[in-house]
Every structure is written in structure tokens, then in C-alpha cells.
Amino acid sequence: MFKFKNVTKIYPDSSANSNDIVALGNVSFEIKEGEFVSIVGRSGAGKTTLLKLILVEEKPTKGRVFFEGEELSKLKPEKLPQLRRKIGAVFQDYKLLASKTTYENVAYVLQVIGASDLEIARDVPKVLEIVGLQDRTNNFPAELSAGERQRVSIARALIHRPKVILADEPTGNLDPYNTLDIIKLLLKIHEMGTTLILATHNKEIVNQLGKRVITLEKGRIIRDEEKGRFIL
Amino acid sequence: MGTTLKRIIISGWQNFSRDGGIAVATIFILVMVIFLASTIFLSKDISQFLITSLQEKADISVYFKEFVLEDDILKIKEKLSQVPEVKNVEYVSKKEAIKRLVEKHPQLKESVQETEGMLNLASLNVNVFEANQYQPVVNFLENSNFKDQIDGVDYYKRKPVIEKIFSLTSLFNKTGIFLSIILIITAILVTFNTIRLAILNSIEEIKIQRLVGASNWFIRGPFLVQGVISGFIAVLISALIFSLICWFLSPKIEFFFAGLNLFNLFIKNLWILLLIQFATGILLAVISSTIAIRKYLKV
Q: How far apart are CA B126 and CA B71, in angstroms?
């Protein structure tokens, strides 16, 4: 499904007498459809950059990234929305639309893909029930707790049944109880057949999952194991 | 297509109604700009009126000898009208001249009535386009074949006043242009501030919308709708304030400048003013949203 081929991403450092920052250095790996892959590493190891390359928020300095056989850096700007509609994304800072309610945030994705009003009215309450937010439909993000916001973010990521969900530190701002809830939710989504890519530095979660683990250090893959563990 | 349009309009309305302070600030700025645009438009007419009325006051009178018949004066009027420098020629009969004199100086009524037979006041009042065009007209009169019928031309007596009036109107014209430029620059600066506000307010929302796969139009549309709503409300507010100001100031201005009715001028130009106001309001909205989105669509 995803293929990284000798991918390097370098950010220029604007401060004087400093070298450029190598976020990813010559990274190559593949992710198959239906996999649950954890990308682990310390802060600054290149986890977020890797996910940004998948979402085409960034382009590689060298190398190529493929999604379903298509090279992402060659994608025309007008094709970007179509690509992103195939991917659901969960962010550490939630990235919810502040001016929209819980219901509207989730419904927005369905509106974007052109779903009918009937489909929206049918699916949004169901998904909000799955994430346990059926009583918070009319609240704005500012009126929700951190855990609730992250659940809205997950509901938004899965509402249109994307082929893949990217989760960038989804538990980074949450307490242990909410962390467990979120991970359970992600596992449930994966069991429904969705490919899941989880970027995290939460050792406990990764070790409990018992799924494939790609370990990054200073922008390089130092380990890629099926049923791996968080070892740094 | 219809569903998407409906969603864009609803989303634009929601953004507008939930924006609170930002919506009020945007409308306030738009009202100011629309107001400036309307003022520039109306001031053009007002200054033209003032300049024309001032220039009309700068004229020369050609007086005729007592034996000259009205028909002859009218023939001379025809000839004078054909001189290229001449803007307007008005015939003032003896009767009319006495009437005007009495109106202007009522205390002289009796004296005028007593000496009416001795007065020779039939004249032609001549206006030209530029102050320096009076001399050629006077030359024309002095060298014409009807020069013997002319009793006198008051040009030399009025020359300093005429030149003063023309230099004043020229200054007035230049000041008008200068003020219009200042107002236009102000309007542009205010517009850019509106754009900056729109950008600052929407960076994060636009990025998020892009990341969840919204198309350019699905993002741009609600901003446009929001801008059009703000523009529409701003037009209504400015039209209301503008008409109230015109209505209130009209009698006061007319007191100083007879014939200049600001409210009538406003009503006469109402449609074109509304068009300018709508164009300004909606254009600003379109420019703001287009620049904001262009800048942040790169995500």
C-alpha cells in the first residue's frame, strides 16, 4: 500500500553556523494493506515527518514515496484532495475546526466527499456513538476535554471509511485512562480492516499491541520487526 | 452541485454568525471603505457644482447705449455665442436689471423708480471657460462692427476679482484631486488590513480543511459567502448612515450654497451609489478570501 524508497528529508536551518536538519535519512520500507504499524522513536526522530510525507504536507528532498503505486511527490495539486480523502488522520493537537460543533466536525468530511444529507444523518450519530460522544454532538471543541477532542478527531478520521488511518501521537496529551480508550478504539478500527499507522513514543502501548514496530533514530530506521517491541 | 452549493452557503452563514467580534470588526472596516468610496463619488459632483457656481459668478457685463434695440442686442448675443472662448451669454433686459437691482438693494427701490428713465441697464453677461479667455472676448467686442453700440464693458474693473475666482477654483480642483488620492490610499490600506484580518483568522481552519481533503472551492466558497454577507450588511449600514447624513446636512449646506441639495444629489445618484457600495463591499470580500486562501492552499 505504502512504499518508501530511499527517502531523505532535510530541513534547512536558518540559524548561522548550523548544519541543515536531517529529519529522515535514506529511509526505505513498505506497509501492506490491513497492517497495524507503530512508528516509534524519541522526539525529533522523524516520526511526524514520515506521516507528513504520506499526507503530502511535505515533499521528500530525495527518494520516492508511493501510495497504491502512485508516486506522491509527482501528484498534481488538484489531485491532493482525492488522495487525502482516502486517508484518515488523527493528530496530537486534534486539528478540529474550532467554529464547528462535534457533529459538524465529523459531518464535514462526509460533506467534502459529497455524501448525501441522508447518509450524513445516518452515519455521523453512529460513529459518534462508537467513540462515546453521542451526548456531546452540539458542543464546540473548546467545550470538550482533551480526551473528548481526540475522540472527535478519531470519529472524523474514520467516518468516511478510509483505507488507512494515520495517528500522530494520538495519546500525547491524554491521561492513562483516555490513552487506553483511544488505543482500544484504534484497535477496533483496525479489526474492521483499516490499515493503521501509529506514530508514538509511548513504550507501554507499543509493547501491549504486539504488532509491527518500525523504530527510528535520528531519521534512520534502526529496527523493523513484526510483533516488535519498543526498544531504544 | 446543488448540494455542494447549499452546503457552502450554509457553512458561510455559520462561519459569519459564529464569528462574533471578527464579523463586527470586518463589517465596521467595510462600512468605512464603502463610506469613503461613496464620499469620493459624491464629492466629485459637489465640487463640480461649487466650481461651476463660483465660475458663474466670474462674468463680464457688456452694456449697451440707450438707442440700441433689444433685437440688435439679441443679434450681438448670437454672434458672441459663436466665439469659441465663450461658455455662456445671458441677456439681461433693462426691466430685468432693475428688478435684480431692487431685489439686491431694497433700500434703493424709490431712488431707482425715480431715475428709471435715466438708467441704461440692458446688458449681456458673458462667461468664458478660463480666466485668461476674457481678454480675447473683450478684444473681439472692441474690434467688432457693433462696437459703437456698446456703452461699456466692465472687464477691467472686475479683472482682479475674476482672476481671484479662477485661481480659487483651480486650487479647489487640485485640492479635490489631492483629497481623492488620500481617500483612495486610505481605502486601499483599510482593504489590506481587512485582508490581513481574514488571513490571520483563517490560517488554521484552511490548513485543517485541506488536510481532510476539502477541495479548493469547498474551502473558498464559505469564505466568499461570509464575505458577501459582511459586504451586504455593510452596504445596508453605510447606505442608511449616508442617507441620514445627507438628509441632515442638506438644509445646512443649501443655506451656504444655494442650489446645492445634498439629499437630492444622493437620491439622484442612489442606484449608482448602491452599485458602487455593493461593488466595493463584495470586491473586498472576494479579494480578501482569494488572497487568504491562495496563501494557505499550499498545505
A: 18
